[in-house]
Amino acid sequence: MEIFNNTTKTVGDDLKAIVQSGNRISIAAACFSIYAYQELREQLESCEELRFIFTSPTFIAEKTKSERREFYIPRLGRERSLYGTEFEVRLRNELKQKAVAKECADWMRRKVRFKSNTPREGMNNLLLVDGVEDTYTYMPMNTFTTVDLGCERGNNLTNMVTRLENPASAEFLRMFDSIWNDEEKLTDVTEDVIEMI
């Protein structure tokens, strides 16, 4: 087990060292940012596939009455985080957003599937790297952004993340796989995510 404070010892640096060609990456988090992709571009391009679960209903049509919809803002915030959260402003100001988005969308078409948690049931936020020799679990991984990778400063006093190895990680991977394959709990939103990018 290892602990990352995401200031002097970051999850992003550890992922750059651990992710190898052919690994499978599975993430359950509230949002996905193209800038996190940009930070780990080389590793993500070399992975076999990436599976991403939005832990709250995201990119799913509202089933509530229209008068209630106007008050439901958080979903829109999760969807807008694709092209940067409020803490990734510096990256947006570099005026590379269009190029990064185009490259990220191309990668998504080839290697990524997104699903959204439809029943609003809670689940652990985590990132799994499934390799040939070992499986690693990083948790909590609340968002897949540069803040949770430790590349940018967020608004948290602390941003501690723990990395677990097997046998504990294997159990988290089994749990992720069972949720991933449950069509009653998840809806595929890959095309919606790519279209938004």
Care to describe what's here?
The protein has 197 residues and is of the alpha+beta class. The protein is built from ten helices and eight strands.
Order of helices and strands: EHEHHEHHHHEEEHEHEH
Judging from the principal axes of the Cα atoms, what is the shape? globular
Mean pLDDT: 84
Number of H/I helices: 10
Strand content: 15-25%
Distance between the termini: 36 Å
Unreliably modeled segments: 63-73
Structural class, from helix and strand content?
alpha+beta
Largest sheet: 8 strands, mixed
Strand order of the largest sheet: 1-7-6-5-2-3-4-8
Query: Roughly how many Å is the radius of gyration?
Result: 16 Å
- Please give the share of residues in helix: 25-40%
Strand runs, count? 8
List keywords for this structure.
alpha+beta; 197 residues; eight-stranded mixed sheet
Topology readout:
Elements lengths: L1 E3 L6 H8 L5 E6 L4 H6 L1 H6 L2 E6 L11 H4 L4 H7 L8 H4 L4 H15 E6 L8 E5 L4 E5 L6 H4 L11 E4 L3 H13 L5 E3 L1 H7 L1
Parallel strand pairs: 2-3, 3-4
Antiparallel strand pairs: 1-7, 2-5, 4-8, 5-6, 6-7
